[in-house]
């Protein structure tokens, strides 16, 4: 017995120098507070320089809260996937396809049938992702790039040259409503975030999801059905994207080709600032994602108000993504050699 | 416990078979690809007889040339263990835009110099990716996802449509054909040069070894950082060549014009049997893989699929190819 347990571990070929930047690591390590605070300060300073103190008005905060409401709903559902260790880049285009289908079918079939079909299409896309990634072990980023293209194609085909408009009176009025600077949609989105946060923190399934994302093998040995949870996570993200698409139509009255990959980036950059990771699951809290999205949204509103070329937001988002992954690595994510 | 021990022992003794790499059935892959190619051609010709023509062949050649060159770059990156380069659209668009701008200048430089600058820009793009991957030590998929997004956004701020003067030497060459399009022949040369370089040169073997196992490669004194630069910059040469030819064969294009190429390229690399976990793959097999994808794409036009539906189809092919690759990996690691 003893010979079995005390056999020598294989020689470690990976000789690394002692960790540098220990203090910085400590600041960003553990909780996501360091990253959120740094990003918020950065955005605050930049906005002061670019727009001056007038930027910090109640009106602008109102614009911000309605601007990020729909992405927030989508992110609340999509972050469960990151926790479970999967990356679904097609959630943004799922919102787009759901919005397009809802706007195209809603006027003919009525609100509920249209909404149901829109959500079902998003769920079907998520189910295909789940089949490819969980059952067949395709790389989740690459496979969902494929789904992203499929959904963009479908959105293009549905919208065509003649974009449908569909104004849902009740929903539209509701979208305009606000409690002080907080739009109703934003408050609902925050409620969803809190609900999801409670679910992943306290509910058994939520804990299992985090365990599955943290260490797949350990979770499997502990009797957790990792595959099943990941399928659930994919479908959950699809459901959220479907609902977000309907809310988008409620807010804007018509679909747009632009909502797609950009929305995914916005959401994932925000989630990563908030402490989630694209390369390892099991870390992050939806409430951190809320703060991340407030920061990313502030950048968007700033660029919008300053009438800066909106491609510039993409540059910011892409850079934020890379920096966020770096911070995540300093927090303890895997090094890529 | 003892039974388990003896079991292990007997297994060790009775199974000295030399381990062959499962899944490296290059001959079978080639046969399957060519078989599928023949089936696609026959089916399309039966349903649409005008498919079988010289013009179709030229069209397939044009589609295949750009994806073929790009897929050589992607395959080198995948084989070297850097998984995937999602920044191909930007890596192609940067040289293409630069070439179009330089050709359109009132007093253009000599074509040879413009081509060289274009290729060099591709290398620069690869170098930027490698720099980020090696200094920040982040997964290349995420790095290139970000750099592609940034690159395309920056290019979108620079131009909305680029027009290549039709009377320039490059356009004459790019649109001309000799049995097959000129740019197809360039692609063939790229493949035929890259394949032996990867297989028989020291650097090429080191690249493949790095993709197989980083610790093993490092313990043999291979510089992993150097290999990352080599992989991304070699791929950059391919993107540069592809970008120059893209500018030469497309009269006008917008910054998003290369987005759909990425899917075909990844699909081609996977169909060619290059495994996503690195260390294995044949450059030569990219030829039948790209031929198949280009033929399917051209055949779809004959079936009346519009651009939107074509992107649906391309996405579906990519997902199926990735699923197949994942399935084979799962089986071979068992």
UniProtKB/TrEMBL annotation, chain A:
The keyword Metal-binding does not apply. The keyword Transmembrane helix applies. Its main location: membrane. Signal peptide: none annotated. The chain crosses the membrane at residues 26-51, 63-84, 91-109, 115-134, 141-161, 181-202, 231-250, 286-305, 311-327. It is a multi-pass membrane protein. One of its GO terms (molecular function) is transmembrane transporter activity. This is ABC transporter permease. The lineage of its organism: Bacteria, Bacillati, Actinomycetota, Actinomycetes, Micrococcales.
Automatic annotation (TrEMBL), chain B:
GO terms for cellular component: plasma membrane. Signal peptide: none annotated. Pfam families: BPD_transp_2. It is found in: Cell membrane. InterPro entries: ABC_transp_permease (IPR001851). Keywords: Cell membrane, Membrane, Transmembrane, Transmembrane helix. It is a multi-pass membrane protein. Its main location: membrane. This is ABC transporter permease.
């Amino acid at each position: 017995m003893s010979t079995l347990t005390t056999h020598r571990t294989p020689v470690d070929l990976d000789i690394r120098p002692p960790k540098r930047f220990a203090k910085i690591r400590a600041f960003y390590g553990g909780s996501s507070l360091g990253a959120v605070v740094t990003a918020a300060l950065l955005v605050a300073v930049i906005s002061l320089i670019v727009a001056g103190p007038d930027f910090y008005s109640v009106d602008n905060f109102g614009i911000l809260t309605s601007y990020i409401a729909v992405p927030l709903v989508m992110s609340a559902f999509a972050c469960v996937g990151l926790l479970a260790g999967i990356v679904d880049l097609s959630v943004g285009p799922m919102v787009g396809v759901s919005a397009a289908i809802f706007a195209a079918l809603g006027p003919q079939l009525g609100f509920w049938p249209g909404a149901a079909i829109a959500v079902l299409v998003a769920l079907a896309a998520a189910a295909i992702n789940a089949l490819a990634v969980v059952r067949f072990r395709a790389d989740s980023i690459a496979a969902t790039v494929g789904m992203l293209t499929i959904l963009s194609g479908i959105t293009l085909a549905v919208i065509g040259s003649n974009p449908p408009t569909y104004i849902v009176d009740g929903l539209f009025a509701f979208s305009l409503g606000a409690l002080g600077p907080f739009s109703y949609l934003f408050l609902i989105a925050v409620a969803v975030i809190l609900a999801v946060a409670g679910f992943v923190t306290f509910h058994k399934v939520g804990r299992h999801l985090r365990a599955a994302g943290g260490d797949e093998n350990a979770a499997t040995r502990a009797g957790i059905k990792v595959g099943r949870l990941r399928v659930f996570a994919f479908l959950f993200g699809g459901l959220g994207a479907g609902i977000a698409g309907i809310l988008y139509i409620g807010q804007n009255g018509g679909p747009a080709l632009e909502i797609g990959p950009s929305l995914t980036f916005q959401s994932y950059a925000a989630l990563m600032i908030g402490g989630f990771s694209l390369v390892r699951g099991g870390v992050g809290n939806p409430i951190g994602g809320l703060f991340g999205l407030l920061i990313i949204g502030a950048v968007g509103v700033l660029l919008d108000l300053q009438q800066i070329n909106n491609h510039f937001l993409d540059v910011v988002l892409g850079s934020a993504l890379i920096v966020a992954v770096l911070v995540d690595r300093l927090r303890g994510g895997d090094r890529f050699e | 416990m003892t039974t388990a021990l003896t079991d292990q022992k007997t297994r060790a003794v009775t199974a000295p078979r030399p381990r062959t790499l499962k899944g490296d059935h290059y001959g079978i892959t080639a046969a399957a690809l060519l078989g599928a190619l023949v089936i696609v051609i026959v089916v399309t010709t039966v349903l649409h007889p005008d498919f079988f023509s010289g013009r179709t062949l030229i069209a397939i050649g044009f589609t295949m040339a750009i994806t073929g060159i790009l897929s050589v770059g992607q395959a080198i990156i995948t084989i070297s263990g850097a998984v995937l380069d999602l920044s191909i659209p930007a890596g192609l668009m940067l040289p293409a835009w630069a070439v179009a701008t330089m050709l359109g200048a009132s007093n253009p430089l000599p074509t040879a110099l413009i081509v060289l600058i274009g290729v060099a820009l591709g290398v620069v793009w690869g170098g930027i990716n490698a720099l980020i991957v090696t200094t920040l030590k982040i997964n290349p998929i995420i790095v290139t996802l970000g750099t592609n997004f940034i690159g395309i956004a920056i290019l979108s701020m620079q131009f909305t449509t680029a027009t290549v003067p039709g009377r320039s030497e490059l356009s004459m060459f790019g649109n001309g054909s000799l049995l097959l399009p000129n740019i197809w022949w360039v692609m063939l040369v790229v493949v035929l040069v890259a394949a032996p370089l990867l297989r028989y040169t020291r650097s090429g073997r080191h690249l493949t070894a790095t993709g197989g196992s980083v610790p093993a490669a490092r313990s043999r004194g291979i510089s992993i950082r150097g290999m990352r630069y080599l992989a991304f910059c070699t791929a950059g040469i391919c993107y540069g060549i592809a970008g120059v030819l893209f500018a030469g064969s497309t009269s006008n294009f917008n910054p998003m014009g290369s987005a759909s190429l990425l899917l075909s390229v990844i699909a081609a690399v996977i169909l060619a049997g290059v495994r996503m976990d690195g260390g294995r793959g044949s450059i030569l097999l990219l030829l039948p893989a790209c031929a198949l994808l280009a033929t399917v794409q051209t055949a779809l036009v004959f079936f009346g699929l519009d651009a939107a539906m074509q992107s649906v189809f391309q996405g579906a092919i990519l997902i199926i190819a990735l699923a197949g690759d994942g399935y084979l990996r799962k089986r071979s690691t068992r």
